[in-house]
Amino acid sequence: DTGVSQDPRHKITKRGQNVTFRCDPISEHNRLYWYRQTLGQGPEFLTYFQNEAQLEKSRLLSDRFSAERPKGSFSTLEIQRTEQGDSAMYLCAGAGNLRETQYFGPGTRLLVL
Amino acid sequence: KQEVTQIPAALSVPEGENLVLNCSFTDSAIYNLQWFRQDPGKGLTSLLLIQSSQREQTSGRLNASLDKSSGRSTLYIAASQPGDSATYLCAPNPDSSYKLIFGSGTRLLVRP
What does the pLDDT look like over A45-95, one tens digit per residue? Predict the structure, then answer.
């Protein structure tokens, strides 16, 4: 158990609906990362925060995606107007200040019908 | 752009065999490299982190090596067990960013 939790674990939604996922790292994790993983592929980087500041975003993160970490603790990832191509596992990871191990949560599996 | 390739894509071995998983990356400007395992439908579990200045890192039956200049890393698993069955992912961390770049993984099945 890495101590990183994600909620919900599974989400089924209809195309066009908005969804929001939550990630809770442990308190020592100043850095928080979001990745997306499709079947048979490795995770792809979406964005990361240091404390409450969003420092890097992937080009994968279209304008339908937004992420926040308002108090430097938990983070949310929102997808607006979902599309079938958004179906994937969304993974969150936490890490300390140094370039050390990233600790992953169990993921949220999204299915867009 | 960093690209990561893992060979083989899938591997099936009898219990007790020693095995080597390969990872290659195109940009040698990396800070460190992590190896993870992923069980079906689950998150990632960190196995080993090897710094760019290191050649090897060991944890139990696992040994990871890194040849940064040639863009290669290997994960050696000794005396494999059925519980080792999982997908193994390597992920270099570029010098220029804090993100990880993942390969597609090697799917390992250890047969009893």
Answer: 999 999 999 999 998 888 999 999 998 899 999 999 999 999 999 999 999
Contacts of B91 (CB under 8 A, 6+ apart): A42, B4, B33, B34, B35, B36, B100, B101, B102, B103
Residue of A56, A91, A101 with shortest CB distance to B99: A56
Residue pairs between chains A and B whose CB atoms are closer than 8 Å: 61
- B17 DSSP assignment: -
Any idea what DSSP says for residue B60?
Answer: T
Find all residues with CB under 8 Å of B76, minimum gap 6, and list them.
B18, B19, B20, B21, B62, B63, B64, B65
State how far residue B100 is from chain A, nearest Cα, in angstroms: 7
Tell me the DSSP string of A16-28.
Answer: T--EEEEEE--TT
* DSSP conformation letters of A36-80: EE-TTS--EEEEEEETTEEEEE-TTS-TTEEEE-TTSS-EEEEES
SS3 A85: helix
Query: Cβ of B38: how many Cβ atoms within 10 Å?
Result: 22
Q: Tokens 């308190």 label which residue?
A: A27
Q: With 0-12 CB in 10 A as exposed, 13-18 as middle and 19+ as buried, what is A46?
A: buried
